[in-house]
């Protein structure tokens, strides 16, 4: 699988053995047991595993206690003068771990195959983690960047086709790495948006005017929230005084237009 940047997207996992609240071990400890089996010496096994002699024996001692019976034992006598070896229980544990590990890898391979189109969903998943105080969070594609002295006018086109114009400094455009065709999001606080219809639009900002249908109206303590549903599926929330709502005759089901300035739009990108 590959993401939008061309880097490989991989599925991975770790395997650990537990008894109660204690960990019997994972890849590192099982590898140590394998080195003991092949080297016949705790000193050589510790060196092969990249740990100190004391750390190796501490790990072995912990595993012996957690397993309830020895996994490693000292052997004496013989031509080599004795050494360290796995018990039958230790050998079975290593074999069982590797069998489970193989099954885990097969499972992860199936998951990776099933998630062949995961990259298509990753931008959506990443946006779900976005938390801001702005009531309106709209994702889209940058379709135009116009340089106007020290400022830039950036056009963000929403999935439904509506376009939002934002005004930001040229420095911000460069810092954010904004380019035509790139993905970005617009943040607009609800009090920065006006909703009106007909003659009431006179005098309101003209940089951004998005028409739709009033989906819901909620009023409380002299303030009213108006939800405007846009044709493409996006929704805008605006807050205004109750008397303004009444004077403009705004109610659910009627057509209206959201108006807001370009400087009211904050553009961001996912880091």
From TrEMBL:
<dbReference type="InterPro" id="IPR005116">
    <property type="entry name" value="Transp-assoc_OB_typ1"/>
</dbReference>
<dbReference type="InterPro" id="IPR051815">
    <property type="entry name" value="Molybdate_resp_trans_reg"/>
</dbReference>
<dbReference type="InterPro" id="IPR036388">
    <property type="entry name" value="WH-like_DNA-bd_sf"/>
</dbReference>
<dbReference type="Pfam" id="PF00126">
    <property type="entry name" value="HTH_1"/>
</dbReference>
<keyword id="KW-0677">Repeat</keyword>
<dbReference type="GO" id="GO:0030151">
    <property type="term" value="F:molybdenum ion binding"/>
</dbReference>
<dbReference type="InterPro" id="IPR016462">
    <property type="entry name" value="ModE"/>
</dbReference>
<dbReference type="InterPro" id="IPR008995">
    <property type="entry name" value="Mo/tungstate-bd_C_term_dom"/>
</dbReference>
<feature type="region of interest" description="Required for dimer formation and molybdate binding">
    <location>
        <begin position="132"/>
        <end position="140"/>
    </location>
</feature>
<dbReference type="GO" id="GO:0015689">
    <property type="term" value="P:molybdate ion transport"/>
</dbReference>
<keyword id="KW-0812">Transmembrane</keyword>
<keyword id="KW-0813">Transport</keyword>
<comment type="similarity">
    <text>Belongs to the ModE family.</text>
</comment>
<keyword id="KW-0500">Molybdenum</keyword>
<keyword id="KW-1133">Transmembrane helix</keyword>
<dbReference type="GO" id="GO:0003700">
    <property type="term" value="F:DNA-binding transcription factor activity"/>
</dbReference>
<dbReference type="InterPro" id="IPR003725">
    <property type="entry name" value="ModE-bd_N"/>
</dbReference>
<dbReference type="Pfam" id="PF03459">
    <property type="entry name" value="TOBE"/>
</dbReference>
<dbReference type="InterPro" id="IPR004606">
    <property type="entry name" value="Mop_domain"/>
</dbReference>
<dbReference type="InterPro" id="IPR036390">
    <property type="entry name" value="WH_DNA-bd_sf"/>
</dbReference>
<dbReference type="InterPro" id="IPR000847">
    <property type="entry name" value="LysR_HTH_N"/>
</dbReference>
<protein>
    <submittedName>
        <fullName>Molybdenum-dependent transcriptional regulator</fullName>
    </submittedName>
</protein>
<feature type="transmembrane region" description="Helical">
    <location>
        <begin position="250"/>
        <end position="270"/>
    </location>
</feature>
<keyword id="KW-0472">Membrane</keyword>
<feature type="domain" description="Mop">
    <location>
        <begin position="131"/>
        <end position="197"/>
    </location>
</feature>
